[in-house]
Specification:
Chain lengths: 175, 689
């Protein structure tokens, strides 16, 4: 009796799962788009690029440092940092968008303080907001516990203290 | 109501509404009053009319002072035949001494059943005839004796009763001219108890007097036959003989031979006497045969059957036995030796080789095999085996066990006799536990099966004796088999309670007393109610035996309510109040506090009215109980859910905190994006405008 070996034609290399393939394609597409935008900006607006590169430096650092799934730190710092950079960009664009103007902007200490100060504010928001939310959540929890205790007391008044001593409950719907 | 017994009396003395009131003990030198009418004079005994342990006394009727009556006052240690009194009802049957009234009477410290009869004027027939050579001729005997007795027996048979007290001393002439003969009392003592051995069929004569059994009309026919022999001869043909010798002779030769052979019995009476004195109840003349003979018709005469008599005797003890019946009797008198002979196989061998009865030999062998197995674990197996072998050898004979000798239909009377007389019914109880009556029933020949009622009663007693809970056991057997036995509970014993109504009144009386017991319930009361009511009471009896106090109280209330419903009893406010005081544990079985308060309020209200049934319905409402349990389970689930939620909220779970913190970071990012967009718009607009 012959052994039913699998034929060579049937043997296929291990395939990645379909979801992973989809994710890799998206990542590759986004990288390609970013590179294209960078090339265009470098080619047509070098002054803007200089201001952005210098002004948004804290955001780049945050993006590198933040490995959390939602990258909330990078997004928060970037958004506020951008508010600090954007007025200078608009001024640059209105004055002709020249490279030497951009150099003057990014070498001014006051300008840098403003741009990096905005980034610092973003960090503060990112760090403070969870503390505030947790505090609110705890307050709400305490309020709910008080409400539940009042309800339990009402039930004990109606049904007696056996409710507390009652042995393991049977589900009313259990067969 | 002279001459009319109370129709509602299921057990003679239930009619006295004052049963709950215990009058002070009467002085026995002064008359005792029955039903506010009949004065029974303890100082005027009438021994002529006594029936065994039931004493007779002169009676004065307050309504008709000139009436000649007498009372039979029953013994407290012997059950009377309440069921026969109930069957007689209002009837005034011909040939029976007329019952005027009956009820309970205070007799010294006891309350005893008493039956009032019209006093016969002509005295007992035995005082005139059947002795000193005074006879009644064969021509007169049919008209003066047989005809009225048969008429009375036909009536009793038609209502399903037997007389079982037919003897010379209990047949009376109602008139001074001695023309009207009646049968005397048949109610005041257990069936056959007061009968001399001679008047009983041989198998019942072997039995202990208290265990001779209710019997049938066939037993009355036999007793009538003996009466006729004595009246025809004018003397007792076996006078002076030892009872044991007479029984042995009757077992070996037959009752007819013992009584009539070598006696000058008129020729014309030989056939009827042979028919009436036949030892085989199936072959004995029936009432129809007697009626046919009275009417001059032809009747068949049973022949003596010696076909089964073994040719070679079996020696046992100091006697050689040709008869299986005498052998069975000898075995039960020497159990140890009989057991040795049976287990050694000698009996089986004799049955096969000498008596040529292989079927009986096989059945004996089966019992020996079963007995050998039982011997390993049962100390009483020796007695059990011998009793069973005796039943096999003589199926018609009484069941003989540990010195008891009792007919199957006399088990109840024997139980009552032992319980009431000696306060110990362990031997009859043991007999029931070994299921000897069931075995006796199995081996009865098909042509002579006992009455259906007895066939049903035997397995029922075996079932009842096997259960140990309250309401079963020996007490239940006692009340099931003896309608004339009063409730033996210490709470009510002195009131001689015979019916459910009397029991409730007696408990009401006890509730009013200062010495209130823990519960108005014990094994006797439970068994008494279960035996006397028609409703099924298994669930209530189970509750009474439950370890939970609340269930015991509810079961007690339920049983008493069942009794009140069964007898349509009067309101019982004191008993209701007593039970209401015991109900709090049962109320606490309900969880809902408002329901508890409502129940307490309603119970207080209903208890005042004395309605036990309503009280029970309140505490045992299945809908309310179900709603309470469902509500409690729902509340319990909600309470649990709340507790679980509280635990979660109070635990400060790091994972939960991390989730909230992450939500805060997400909120910071979202807010920043929004702020960034708004700021960009504002900046652009400020430059452009």
């Amino acid at each position: 009796m012959m052994t039913d070996w699998p034929s060579r034609a049937r043997v296929r290399p291990p395939q990645p799962p379909p979801g992973r393939v989809h994710f890799q394609r998206r990542r590759f597409g986004r990288t390609l788009l970013a590179a294209l935008v960078l090339v265009l900006v470098t080619a047509f607006t070098p002054a803007t690029l200089v201001v952005l590169l210098v002004g948004m430096l804290p955001t780049v650092v945050a993006a590198i440092a933040d490995r959390s799934p939602g990258r909330h730190a990078a997004v928060t710092v970037g958004s506020i940092n951008f508010i600090g950079v954007f007025p200078f960009l608009v001024g640059l664009w209105l004055s002709g968008n020249a490279v030497h103007d951009a150099s003057a902007l990014v070498t001014s200490v006051i300008n840098l303080v403003l741009m990096y100060g905005a980034a610092a504010l973003g960090w503060m928001i990112y760090l403070a907001m969870p503390l505030v939310v947790v505090a609110i959540w705890r307050l709400h929890g305490r309020s709910e516990v008080a409400g539940l205790r009042v309800r339990q007391k009402a039930m004990i008044d109606e049904w007696g203290e056996e409710l507390e001593r009652h042995p393991p409950r049977r589900s009313l719907t259990a067969k | 109501m002279a001459g009319e017994p109370d129709p509602s009396v299921a057990a003679a003395a239930a009619v006295d509404p004052s049963v709950a009131e215990v009058p002070p003990a009467v002085d026995l030198t002064r008359p005792a009053l029955l039903n506010q009418r009949f004065e029974i004079d303890p100082s005027a005994p009438l021994p002529t009319f006594a029936n065994g342990p039931a004493q007779a006394f002169a009676v004065t009727d307050r309504h008709q002072p000139g009436r000649r009556l007498f009372a039979l006052v029953c013994s407290p240690e012997r059950p009377f035949r309440a069921h026969v009194l109930e069957l007689l009802g209002n009837a005034a049957p011909p040939g029976l001494m007329p019952v005027v009234d009956h009820g309970l009477v205070q007799w010294g410290h006891d309350r005893r059943p008493a039956i009032i009869y019209v006093r016969p004027h002509g005295g007992a027939i035995g005082a005139v005839y059947g002795r000193d050579g005074r006879t009644i001729s064969e021509n007169d005997i049919v008209r003066r004796v047989v005809t009225p007795v048969v008429r009375a027996l036909q009536f009793l048979d038609s209502v399903g009763a037997s007389h079982r007290n037919i003897r010379l001393g209990n047949l009376y002439f109602m008139d001074e001219g001695r023309t009207e003969l009646v049968l005397g009392d048949c109610v005041a003592v257990p069936a056959g108890l007061a009968q001399p051995l001679l008047f009983e069929p041989v198998e019942r004569a072997i039995a202990d007097p208290a265990g001779r059994g209710e019997g049938t009309s066939a037993d009355d026919v036999f007793a009538l036959g003996v009466v006729l022999v004595l009246l025809l001869l004018g003397y007792d043909p076996v006078a002076g003989e030892d009872d044991d010798a007479i029984i042995t002779a009757r077992l070996e030769r037959g009752s007819y031979s013992v009584l009539c052979e070598r006696q000058r019995v008129p020729l014309a009476m030989l056939e009827p006497l042979r028919g009436m004195l036949c030892d085989d109840p199936q072959a004995r003349w029936s009432l129809d045969d007697l009626q046919a003979w009275i009417s001059g018709g032809r009747t068949s005469v049973p022949r003596r059957n010696l076909a089964n008599r073994p040719g070679v005797p079996l020696a046992f003890g100091r006697k050689e036995h040709f008869s299986l019946r005498t052998l069975a009797r000898a075995f039960t008198r020497d159990v140890t030796r009989a057991d040795g002979m049976i287990r050694a196989g000698h009996l089986e061998q004799w049955l096969r080789q000498r008596a040529h009865d292989d079927d009986l030999a096989n059945r004996v062998a089966d019992q020996v095999t079963a007995g050998a197995k039982a011997a390993r674990w049962s100390a009483g197996s020796e007695q059990n085996l011998v009793s069973r072998i005796a039943i096999l050898l003589d199926p018609r004979a009484p069941i003989r066990f540990q010195g008891l000798s009792v007919m199957a239909d006399g088990l109840g009377a024997m139980l009552a006799f032992r319980w009431l007389g000696e306060g110990d019914a362990q031997t009859p109880g043991e007999l029931l536990r070994t299921d000897l009556p069931g075995f006796w029933l199995q081996v009865q020949p098909k042509e002579s099966m006992p009455p259906v009622a007895l066939q049903r009663q035997i397995p029922r007693l075996a079932f009842l004796i096997g259960k140990h809970a309250a309401g079963y056991g020996l007490e239940r057997c006692l009340y099931e088999t003896n309608p004339g036995v009063s409730c033996q509970s210490p709470l009510v014993r002195e009131l001689h309670v015979l019916t459910l109504k009397d029991l409730l009144l007696a408990l009401e009386h006890a509730a009013k007393g200062s010495g209130e017991a823990d519960l108005p319930m014990d094994r006797h009361i439970a068994a008494f109610i279960a035996a006397r009511s028609d409703e099924g009471s298994e669930a209530l009896l189970a509750a009474v035996s439950d370890p939970s106090r609340s269930k015991v109280v509810v079961g007690t209330l339920g049983l008493l309510a069942q009794a009140q419903r069964a007898c349509d009893g009067p309101p019982l406010p004191a008993l209701s109040a007593w039970l209401a005081r015991l109900l709090p544990p049962a109320i606490e079985d309900f969880h809902h506090r408002k329901t508890r308060r409502e129940l307490e309020k309603r119970i207080r209200s209903v208890a005042r009215d004395g309605r036990l049934t309503e009280l029970f319905d309140i505490i045992n409402d299945p809908d309310r109980r179900s709603a309470d349990m469902t509500g409690f389970m729902t509340a319990s689930a909600a309470f649990d859910a709340a507790a679980s939620r509280i635990r979660t909220l109070e635990s400060d779970d790091p994972a939960q905190v991390a989730r909230v913190r992450e939500a805060g970071q997400s909120a910071a990012a979202t807010a920043s994006i929004l702020a960034s967009a708004i700021a960009a718009c504002v900046i652009l607009m400020s430059y452009l405008l």
